[in-house]
C-alpha cells in the first residue's frame, strides 16, 4: 500500500513492525488496558488483522466512516464478529488501527541527492495517493471522521507525523549539502509541500495533477531557500 504524506501519501512514509514477543512465544496477550487496535500480533492473529483492515479500508472508500459497521466488517473479512468486537470494540478504534497500518506500510522517502527532485517526488506521491480511486476516497473518509471523532483525529495526526518525519530527512540532507540554510525546519518544509494539495482536494476542487504537484514543491522550496522555515 503506498500512502502519503508525505504520501496520502501517509505514510510515510516507517517500516512494518514484526510480531511482538508475546505473539512469537505464544504467551498470553497484553493486559486489557491496552487500547483497542494497538497490539502488534503475529501468526493467525496477524492474518485476521490484515483481513479486517482490508475490509475496513474497502468500506471506508465505498461508503465513508458510516460504513464501518463492525458486524459487516467481520462478514466481509470472513472472521467472527466476536473477534472483531473484542479486538477493536468501536469503529473509531478500527479506523485508528487502519491508519497505524497504513503508516507502517507507506513507501520510504526519495533519495535523489537533490532537494528539488526530492520535494517534487514527495508532491507527486501525494497527488498519486489523493487521486487514486480507492486511496483518495479512503483519505477523504478518514479526514471527515477525524473532524468529529477524537480517536480518529489522534490516529490521523500520528499518521502524518510518521509520514512527515520520514520525508523530513530529505530536508536535513539538503541542509548538510548546503542547499538550504542552517536551522531550516525540515518538518515545516515537508508539510508546506503537501498543504496546498490537500487544500485543493478539500476546498477548491482544483485538479490534482503533476503540474499542481510540481508547483507545490517549487513554492515550498523557494520559501525554504529564502529562510522562511
Record the SSE blueprint.
Layout: H1 21-25, H2 43-63, H3 70-77, H4 81-87, H5 91-105, H6 115-131, H7 133-146, H8 150-177, H9 186-204, H10 210-225
Helix pairs in contact: 2-3, 2-5, 2-7, 3-4, 5-8, 6-8, 6-9, 6-10, 7-8, 8-9, 9-10
Task: Label this structure with key terms.
mainly alpha
Name the beta content range. under 5%
Broad shape: elongated
Radius of gyration: 19 Å
Mean pLDDT: 84
Query: Biggest β-sheet, characterized?
Result: none
Q: What is the terminal-to-terminal distance?
A: 31 Å
Total helices: the number is 10
Describe this structure in words.
The structure is a single chain. The chain is built from ten helices and no strands. With 229 residues, the chain is mainly alpha-helical. Helix 3 (70-77) crosses helix 4 and helix 6 runs antiparallel to helix 10.
Short recap of the structure:
It contains 10 helices and no strands. The two termini are 31 Å apart. About 16% of the residues have low confidence.
